[in-house]
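User: Can you fold this complex?
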Amino acid sequence: MFVKRIVGTGLGSQQCVNQIGYEDMPTTECEYQLRIPSETDNLELIRDFVSKVAEKVGFKSDDVGKIELACDEACTNVMKHAYASGQKNGKESLDILIQIDYDKFTLVVTDHGRGFDPDAIKLPDMKEYLAQLKVGGLGIYLMKTLMDEVDYQMQPGVRNQVKMVKYFIDKKNSKLIESEKENK
Amino acid sequence: MDTFSISRVNNNEYSILYLNGFLDAHTAPELENEIEKLIQEGRFKIVVNFNDLNYISSAGLGVFMGFIEDIRKNGGDIKMCSMSPKIFRVFDLLGFPTLYDIVEEENKAIELFKN
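Assistant: Here's the predicted assembly.
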């Protein structure tokens, strides 16, 4: 798929994206992107960025909170696990991409570290191992609960991505509304 | 950026921790240190007041999980109070209300230790 896009790097930047060649693919209307050092002291900045975009596109505060927390959890996992602390050089970054389609909000967190798989973490210190497993596990559980779709694509050392989707309309509720209309 | 702070009040039997700001993977070590200090001082009856906490992620919840076994073994507990609906929802999603006493008011949390 060839995607022509011009993407801004700040909250004020908003550019349209045209997809060429695949007519059946839905068109991404707008994208927002943030590249930021993979350090936990940037979590607040990341949350501000994501929640401001979610507010701007019309989510209510309850859903904004869910998106903000899901993004925090995904980024925390990258910061804690994707880059091994012994191999860090201080230049690791993560990318946050938000795509706005007519029906959904897609959040993609990308890193270039060793990937994160809570089942595969093996550390010599069992206390630390359990602590990390617990916290990582809680984060993934939260992400899956808070968002409509969560999908991992891991290519360790090359590119790891977590893609999370929130629909503007709750599909389950809209189905209920449709069936109520039919019954009338 | 100072986005999280804790203050502590000690009473004879129990201690109250007041959390303020944003509790995430960056600030969770501060809470960890404070609870470690309480344990070292032999203060195992802990009330945590969430009234001024604006945000919590799983890293913050993980701190409570990390210490609770130790605290209960020593006859203590962590009682939680004054959560906003936003904060309570995160605890609720992870099933914490079955593991911890979470009450609306600080007085009620303190009373739980007296019973």
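Chain A touches chain B at residues 40-41, 43-44, 47, 65, 69, 72-73, 76, 79-80, 131, 134-135, 138-139, 141-142, 145-146 (CB under 8 Å). Chain A has four helices and seven strands.
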